[in-house]
Amino acid sequence: MPKSPRPRARFSFSPAVRALFLAAATCGAVLPALAAIEHEEVDKLMQAGKLDEAMTKADAFLKDKPRDPQMRFLKGVIQLDTGKRAEAISAFTQLTQDAPELPEPYNNLAVIYASQNQFDKARSALESAIRTNPSYATAQENLGDVYARLASQAYSKALQLDQNNTAVQPKLAVIRTLFTPTPVGGKPTAVVASAAPAPAPAPVAKAPAPAPAPAAPPPAKVAAAPAPVAAAPKAPEATPAPAPAPAPAASTASNAEVESAVRAWASAWAGQDMERYLAAYGPDFAPAGGQSRKSWEEDRRARIVGKSSISVNIENLAIKVDGQTATAKFRQIYRADNLNVTSRKTLDMQRSGNHWQIRKESVGG
Amino acid sequence: MADIVRHGRLQNPPFRLRSGQLLAALTTASALMLVAPGAALASNNTKTGSSAKAKAAMGSHAGSRSAKAQPKSRKGAVAAETRTAGATTARPARKPASNAAPIQEAGNAEARLIAVYEMFGRGQARPALAKARDLVRDYPNFQLAQLVYGDLLAAQVPPSNALPDTASIAKMRGNPAMAELHEESKRRLQALRERPPANTVPSQFLALSTRSRYAIAVDASRSRLYLFENSDKGLKLTADYYISVGKSGTDKTTEGDARTPLGVYYITSSLDPKSLKDFYGAGALPINYPNPYDLRRGKTGGGIWLHGTPPQQFARAPLASDGCVVMANPDLKQLLRKVQIGATPVVTARSLQWISQPQAEKESQSITGAINGWKDARANGNEAQLKKFYLPDFQRSSKKSTEGISAVDEEVKYAQGKRVQLKDMSYLHWRDGDDTMIVTFGEVFEGEKSGRSRRQYWLRQGTDWKLFHEEILG
What is the pTM for the complete model shown? Predict the structure, then answer.
């Protein structure tokens, strides 16, 4: 990996982000300052389900910058979403060749292979993703699912059972974007990560929660108990955390309400209390990736209930209240069984009566 | 025999799991639970025999080999002499020193499975998984390998995984058919850990003429078939293979009892696999059950073969057949190249006992004495003396014709007082309730170049051996 040849004064990346960034750079892609905006637009269109428009935009962008990994990745996701599996496979495969350091394309290849019943290929792709980035939680969880399926298949063969009898297909989580650095202090957007101290991992359609943070600095303090620890006031060193200005006195009460809602959410999650956990999300909560609320809830249930233990700790909580809405940004330290993932999390909150509910959950910010 | 197979937990579980549940489940439900570090592949599975040599072996049946000098009346020494004669007599060149022991290729799948066990036992779960994956890719119908692969995969699934597959894994682990695979696993490992002592042979093989280039012994308790190469240096274990026997076990007595017979038999033919149903796999080697001893005891049934496996199964459960001995097709193919029709003995035992060569020679002394006594009485024309060697219900059968020569006087006339040489002696001992000996030899009368081959069935009564059946082989 070459030493950073492209200092960008306004940005300060964690080493991991830089590594990924350079990975992209070394494969010949240049990320112009404006690229992030185009990516964001395509991503928004995708989230809105306007896949044709998203594709048109992506194609237009790629005409100029055919090697741009983020847009190629987004295009692959659009192809995946529109059922163009062969194209998606080719897009992601090409990306794994041009930028083998990126785990996301491997992960999405695995998703497609798994949907085609090619679980051994899915396994192989996920193992590559994890080799690239061992703490990539989505790939880890997907790999667990694939191992379970392969084990189930092997047992069926051992017993010479009809393999069509086996359980429903595991549905692997698609990663929807590569990291996208945007300037510090930029407007917090739902999906696109800003230059957060921890590299913002891609939001995951299926499982919004345990978003991975590649090579994140170890959390300052980790409680073994599932209850969230008090927010550590100390920002991780050398990282420009978007330290918010002290809240005006007037909104202190609201801030406290929001903080209490966020901590209740984390505590319900850690306590595997699905009722309270799901109740933390408001009626207009929109799961990422256009997933239905029902299937999102099922996914969350499957992900949470089965864990033997979960802890969710919140650090560097910054709350911004604006009337009936609020934004809570924090560092989320998620541990479940053998997963240990630190990531930036943004919760868009909406006041409902005298309590606050989550309207949008996004990684990064 | 001490059961050294370890059933307990693994000492060094290679998986860091927060919840011990999975490992507990794995070690109680998994085929891997049997793995103890150092599951010795001391199995020294040796293989000799190029195909050219095997062909030579097949062709040698006609008996073109020069007759060997046979000591005449030195009591008790015949077997020993037969065995060692080659040391002093010029014999057709044999394969040079077969003490080198290459891994048998037919046992490849099993050897690879054992390597997976060993890696797992050493805590190398990931390499074990990769090896298991290769193995099931090459042998997709090797059910035990699939089970081990499944176990290794399941060990990688986080214990929290609550997906439907996790449930189906748990369900399949509870499937009764798993027990058969675990038993297969146990027996394969046991057979590879507990090797026959060096320089020993199954106790049935007191002496084997080098006319029989190979010998087969089945140990049902271990689900194992041992293949020996026979030379003037004696029997040498060259390979052993996992086998299945009857659903109801061994000791066949009646037709349809789904048991594998116990006794000393010979391969009687080799059936063309093209003429067989797929079910029998690569071929079939019928044995002569019921043999004269079985018939004498009223045993019924038939059609006992050594045969292969159907296309969808690499191997079958330890107790699976209707009485046949079933081998994996690659293993059977090895055997097919070697066996000699009518001359390759097949011992099927509940549990083989292994004895040293001197012990075998010692145990053959009494029958050697009886044979020499019988021969001398016949040569002397002493009917009264000769008669003592026959049980009243003695029967004789001939492969060539059924000329009913059954009486002692026929035997005397036949011998006409000529001196006779017995050669190529084989003594196969079978002891259950009774003590029996199956003796095969060639006889050459003075002045002649060749003679008959006989197979005699002797039964011990008190201290005396008596003939109850004889086959003239030609």
Answer: 0.65
Q: Is B172 in contact with A149 (Cβ distance < 8 A)?
A: no
Residue A208 lies in a domain: no
The pLDDT value recorded for residue B4 is: 29
CATH code for the domain in which residue A128 is found: 1.25.40.10
Cβ-defined contact of B136 to A161 (cutoff 8 Å): no
- DSSP string over B273-325: GGGS-GGGTT-EEEB-PSPHHHHHTT------EEE---TT-SS--SEEESS-E
Question: Into how many domains does chain A fold?
Answer: 2
Say yes or no: A150 contacts chain B, CB-CB below 8 A. yes
Q: Which helix (H) or strand (E) holds A228?
A: none
Chain A residues closer than 8 Å to B168 by CB = 152, 155, 166-167
Enclosing domain of residue A283? 249-363
Average pLDDT, chain B: 79
Q: Is residue A5 part of a domain?
A: no
Residues A135 and A25 in one domain: yes
- Counting Cα atoms < 13 Å in the Cβ hemisphere of B411 gives 27
CA–CA gap between residue A36 and residue A51 (Å, rounded) = 19
Is A147–B163 a contact, with Cβ atoms under 8 angstroms apart? no
Q: Which of A155, A170, A308 lies nearest to residue B172, judging by beta carbons?
A: A155
- B163 and A167 within 8 Å at the Cβ level: the answer is yes
pLDDT number for residue B35:
55
Q: Assess contact for B434 and B465: CB atoms under 8 A.
A: no
Closest residue of chain B to A158, computed from CA coordinates: B143
* Chain B, nearest residue to A165 by Cα: B168
Residues in chain B within 8 Å Cβ distance of A336: 160
Of B17, B153, B158, the CB nearest to A150: B153
Residue A186 lies in a domain: no
The C-alpha atoms of residue A51 and residue B67 are separated, in whole angstroms, by 91
Specify the range with the lowest mean pLDDT, choosing from A126-130, A152-156, B164-168, B373-377.
B164-168
pLDDT tens per residue across span B155-173: 888 877 667 788 888 888 8
Q: Cα separations (Å) of B64 from A186, A189, B338, B450?
A: 98, 94, 18, 10
**Shared-domain flag, residues A21 and A155:** yes
- The CATH number of whichever domain residue A317 belongs to comes to 3.10.450.50
Which superfamily does B51-67+82-102+201-352 belong to?
L,D-transpeptidase catalytic domain-like (2.40.440.10)
Interchain proximity A155–B19, CB inside 8 Å: no
Nearest CA distance, B37 vs chain A (angstrom): 24
Picking from A138, A165, A192, the residue at the C-terminal end of a domain is A165
CB atoms within 10 A of CB B301: 19
Calculate how close chain A gets to B9, using CA atoms only, in Å: 21
**Chain-chain contact of A167 with B146 (C-beta, under 8 angstroms):** no
CA gyration radius, chain A: 20
Is residue A54 pLDDT above 50, yes or no?
yes
The closest CB to that of B181, out of A158, A166, A168, belongs to: A158
- Highest average pLDDT, of A60-74, A217-231, A237-251, B341-355, comes from B341-355
* Residues A21 and A160 reside in one and the same domain: yes
Dig out the tokens for B454 from the structure. 């006989």
Decide if A26 is inside a domain: yes
Residues whose CB is less than 8 angstroms from the CB of residue A9 and which lie 6 or more positions away in sequence, other chains included: none
- According to CATH, where is 2.40.440.10 located in chain B? 51-67+82-102+201-352
Segment 13-72 of chain A within 8 Å of chain B by CB: none
Same domain for A142 and A38: yes
Separation in Å, CA of A124 to nearest CA in chain B? 11
How many residue pairs from chains A and B have C-beta atoms closer than 8 A?
A: 114
A22: closest CA of chain B, how far (Å): 31
Asked if the Cβ–Cβ distance from A170 to B163 is below 8 Å, we say yes
Domain boundary among A165, A194, A222: A165
